[in-house]
Amino acid sequence: MLSTPLSAKLDALLAQPPEQVGLCSGLVATSIPLADIQVAAAVRTPSHGAPTLVFMHGWQDNLASFHSLLPLLPQDFGLILFDWPGHGLSEHKPGDYYYPFFDYLDDLHQVLNHSSLSLLGHTGPVVLVGHSLGGVVASCYAASFPDSIDAMVTIEALGPIAEPEQTVTERFASSLNQRAILRTKAPRYFDSALKALRLRASINKVSFESLLPLVARGLSVCTQGVRWRHDRKLGAEALYRMSPAHSESIIRAINCPVLAIRATDGYPAFRSTDAAIRATWFQQLTLAELPGTHHCHLQQPQQTVSLITDFVTKIQTRT
Fold it and tell me: pTM to 2 decimals?
């Protein structure tokens, strides 16, 4: 059973203005316009010469995925966090849109180049920090804009996801069938926020306490009950994934220093023979491992921040 104090904490988070959930002192909630929608974001201006860390969360998460890290980071660091389109408090893409991976690169490009952010005229290093999907996007972006990104940290990600060429038609059929099902499937509602929290904890294998802000920011209370805010169309698998040769080409094009953090009980692919081969394609890679599951940064926030801070400090020294 979930305890009454825990229930009270969840209720308190849900009672807050949603845009404040998952933020720490000094972060300012804002909204960044993209070409067709608004994305929810939070920013903190860096001290002169200090780095700016751009945090990107994973699939069906939101920026509160990093809530436990934020208070532990050096106060002079600049911070940019945002909910991906269709996630958290960001608007959903219009029409029959299924969030193809490559469009996340365009989303990130628009965010980083928007005039409201302090990156314009910024004097310190720019470091991309991505968990899972966020780490995959970061890898592709750092490879494509090597002069804009000074360093990268990935958590449970090691370059782009790739599949053998011969599986492409199988993926087409599977994804299209999933889309057909989603179009006719009724939305899911919970009769309590606690049930939603319990479901996420069981899926992610993370404690209730660690997930509280992430779940609270991702929930909407309505007359039918409680539902997830993220776009239901995110539930369909990707229609296409790049080939191993494309993935290798992208990884080899990343010339900035990279810190890759993996979990001891995370996705097995990151501890496989293939992962060991991928690691040799990076020009400047530091590998680290933390106890925990795929969301190890929520389970080990102090260790995660120590790794990131030490890595970024070395980047500052070199630059």
Answer: 0.96
